[in-house]
Design a protein that fits this description.
It is a single chain. The protein is of the alpha/beta class. The chain has one domain: UDP-N-acetylmuramoyl-L-alanine:D-glutamate ligase. 36% of the residues lie in helices and 22% in strands. The chain has a nine-stranded mixed beta sheet, with helices on both faces. It has a four-stranded mixed beta sheet with strand order 3-2-6-7. α6 packs across α7.
């Protein structure tokens, strides 16, 4: 297995989309009733990059954005967050950036996502080949990047290049059915990606999907930890998480909060979990910090702008009663 200590370089190359999020304003407003919207940077990989950057790490994004005002908006926001966009390519033609409308409400929450002709799926082998993987501590990606070609083949090529450079591959399953041609294709591709990854994070539905049945999801996570992965985090929503390594496993709870929305938790968890490992914290502490960050983000408007700073995270941990008993 690859040396996970490279993660302590705290410098990550992240493959996947950056998009625009629109949130109806004020919080609690339904999209169909809104007269005002607040724009922010979105996209799972971009959100993970923001989480890492706000916690003091370095992040470089590899993706494509549309060569228009929305694509330039994403580039501007990436710069605002200190994210290296040297490997973000603008593409013309009919390709368009992802656009997501997320309501800041839990009851009757609506998320409407537009991804027809998504620009990020235009990423090629040439794009990922231009990266000096040995200069980074790990490669991180979210599963949506695998949903279409040429992005899928490019990502697997990046996996091969990262492995050749000796850096860990970190995979957030992030299954979005609307992006895939069929569940069968998704299950096959995710299983291939999981077998190539050193750290895998997903929820019970996602591992269940990979296994063919939710009842078999935990067994699938365990099999990955016993065969190819060094760390597998099996998230179960309000029931907490089970973290599995080749040597052992442990359970952790969640930090209960009054949620404003259900979105952004997974990206916050991944970014903070990896940042905590980079800081040399014990694995269980890293998982708990990821859970705390997820709780912070679901209690605030937006995703990227809601990612915590070290001060915000430390204050939350110091004042919250603590995680639930798993």
């Amino acid at each position: 297995m690859v040396d996970l200590s490279r993660i302590r370089d705290n410098n990550f190359v992240i493959i996947g989309r950056a998009g625009m999020d629109l949130n109806p304003h004020p919080a609690g407003t339904k999209t169909e009733d809104a007269t005002d919207f607040v724009a922010s940077l979105g996209g799972s990989s971009a959100n993970i990059a923001v989480a890492i950057s706000k916690l003091g790490g370095k992040a470089a994004l590899v993706t494509c954005v549309s060569d228009d005002a929305i694509g330039r908006y994403c580039l501007n926001r990436l710069a605002d967050f200190g994210i290296n966009a040297h490997h973000v390519r603008s593409v013309g033609g009919e390709a368009r950036n992802s656009l997501a409308l997320y309501e800041s409400r839990v009851e009757d929450h609506q998320s409407v996502i537009y991804r027809n002709g998504a620009a990020d799926f235009e990423m090629t082998r040439q794009d990922v080949s231009a990266v000096d993987y040995a200069s980074f501590g790990a490669l991180i990606t979210a599963g949506t990047v695998l949903a279409a070609e040429p992005s899928r083949s490019a990502t697997f090529h990046a996996f091969d290049l990262a492995r050749a450079a000796g850096i860990p591959i970190i995979f957030d399953v992030d299954y979005r059915p609307y992006s895939w041609p069929s569940p069968k294709v998704a299950a096959e591709v995710y299983s291939r990606a999981g077998a190539m990854s050193d750290i895998i994070v997903g929820n019970d539905d996602e591992f269940g999907f990979m296994a063919g049945s939710k009842k078999q999801g935990l067994a699938k996570a365990g099999d990955l930890a016993k065969s190819t992965a060094s760390i597998v985090v099996y998230k179960m929503g309000e029931l907490g998480a089970i973290t599995i390594t080749p040597e052992n496993e442990f359970r952790t709870g969640i930090y209960p909060v009054t949620a404003l929305k259900p979105t952004g938790a997974g990206d916050a968890f991944m970014g903070t979990f990896i940042s905590s490992l980079a800081a040399g914290l014990p694995l269980k502490t890293a998982v708990l910090h990821g859970s705390a960050s997820a709780a912070i983000v679901v209690s605030k408007v937006g995703c990227s702008q809601a990612m915590p700073t070290p001060e915000t995270l430390h204050e939350f941990l110091a004042t919250h009663p603590g995680p639930t008993t798993p």
